[in-house]
Amino acid sequence: MKRIFLSLVCLFLLIGTASAIPPFPPGCSSLQNVSTLALTGMTTNPNTTARWVIVNNQVTIEIDAVVATSNSTSMTLTGLPAALTPARNQYFQVLLEDNSVSTIIGLAQISGTTITFGKTANSTGEFTSSGTKGIVLGITLTYNLL
User: Fold this and answer.
1) What's the domain range around 90?
2) Number of other residues whose CB lies within 10 A of the CB of residue 25
3) According to the model, what pLDDT value does residue 71 have?
4) Could you give the 3-state DSSP secondary structure of residue 26?
5) Distance between CA 120 and CA 59 in Å, rounded?
6) Whole-prediction pTM value?
7) Which of 13, 42, 111, 133 has its CA 20 to 30 A from that of 97?
8) Contact of 127 with 75, CB cutoff 8 Å
9) What CATH number is associated with residue 62?
10) Region of 113 on the Ramachandran plot (φ > 0 left; ψ -120 to 50 alpha; else beta)
11) pLDDT for 60-115, tens place per residue?
């Protein structure tokens, strides 16, 4: 219970700052940064921005919206920093666009330094290889590194 409380205090302190990382109480460890990720499975591989923070082994990533013309049934975001690699795959339901329809609840799977997306909530891939697809409104993912 003490560790959970301390993690919440650390996260609260970090979220409350607009710029630099504040001095954290003893027991808090943190790292934050901004990274550029590439969306694959498109006629071009557009970039998007990911803002992330690690506090006591808990990662939170905010990924900006990105949509492009599809040329494949797969869709991935590549370029996650190695520091964000979880010990085991992480799965999330996210709002996506496929074939120009932006109301699809799909799957996001973090494995290594790649996020692989799926058109359905229980499998990766299966997108239409035409029209547009991507991340509609941006997404926030939170998971434990351990």
Assistant:
1) 2-19+27-144
2) 10
3) 96
4) coil
5) 24
6) 0.80
7) 111
8) yes
9) 2.60.90
10) alpha
11) 999 999 999 999 999 999 999 999 999 999 999 999 999 998 878 999 999 999 99
Residue 64 — φ and ψ, nearest 5°? -70, 155
**Which pLDDT score, from 0 to 100, does residue 44 have?**
93
The helix/strand/coil state of 142 is strand
Angle (CA) 69-90-145 rounded to 5° is: 125
Domains in the chain, number: 1
Q: Which two tokens stand for residue 104?
A: 């699809």
pLDDT tens column, 6-30: 444 454 444 444 334 444 555 666 7
In 16-58, which ranges are continuous DSSP H helix?
none
Q: What are phi and psi of 15, to 5 degrees?
A: -65, -30
Q: Tell me, what's the pLDDT at 121?
A: 76
pLDDT of residue 4: 47
Dihedral class, residue 79 (left if φ above 0, else alpha if ψ from -120 to 50, else beta): left
Alpha-carbon distance of 146 to 125, in angstroms, equals 26
User: Which segments of 18-135 does DSSP mark as H helices, in order?
Assistant: none
75: helix, strand or coil = coil
